[in-house]
Write a structure and sequence with these properties.
By secondary structure, the protein is α+β, with helices and mostly antiparallel strands. It has helices spanning 55-72, 93-103, and strands at 6-9, 24-27, 30-36, 80-87, 113-118, 127-134. It starts with 5 loop residues before the first strand and ends with a strand.
C-alpha cells in the first residue's frame, strides 16, 4: 500500500500560524481546514487585524478565509462535508443563520452538515469556523 503524502496549506492571504500547526492539511482526497477567524488578509510585518467589530464583518471574512484554504487545497464549498462554527455569544445564532443562508444561497444544496457551539475566543473575535472537505 502506498502511503499518502500530507500537505500543509497556507494561502498567501494568511500569516504563518502562531504555533506548530497548519491552516489546512490535505492528505489524499481529505482536506481539513483549521479553525479560521475573521482576520483581514495578511500584511507582511503587521499583526493580524479583525475585519471589523460586527458579526457580519467577521463572518464574511471568516468564510473568505476558509474558502482560500479550500482553494489552496484544490477544493470548493461543494466538497465540504462538515463545518463547525464557534460563536462567543448565544445571541448571535439567528444572525449567523441569516448570514449563512445569504452567503450560501447560490449553492444547489446545503453546503454541509454543521455544528454550532459557544466558546471563548481572543478579545474582539466573535466567530471561528473549521471545515472538513472530501474531494473527488
Amino acid at each position: 500500500m502506498t502511503k499518502l503524502e500530507k500537505v500543509a496549506l497556507t494561502p498567501s492571504t494568511h500569516t504563518a500560524p502562531p504555533a506548530k500547526f497548519s491552516h489546512g492539511v490535505r492528505k489524499g482526497n481529505i482536506l481539513q481546514v483549521a479553525g479560521q477567524v475573521g482576520f483581514l488578509p495578511a500584511v507582511e510585518g503587521q499583526a493580524p487585524t479583525p475585519a471589523g467589530p460586527t458579526l457580519r464583518e467577521q463572518t464574511l471574512q471568516t468564510f473568505a478565509n476558509v474558502k482560500a484554504i479550500l482553494e489552496e487545497g484544490g477544493a470548493s464549498w461543494e466538497d465540504v462535508m462538515m463545518m463547525r462554527v464557534y460563536l462567543t455569544d448565544t445571541d448571535h445564532f439567528a444572525e449567523l443563520n441569516a448570514l449563512y443562508n445569504e452567503y450560501f444561497g447560490d449553492l444547489k444544496e446545503a453546503p454541509s452538515a454543521r455544528t454550532t457551539v459557544y466558546v471563548g475566543l481572543p478579545a474582539g473575535l466573535l466567530i471561528e469556523i473549521d471545515a472538513l472537505a472530501v474531494l473527488g
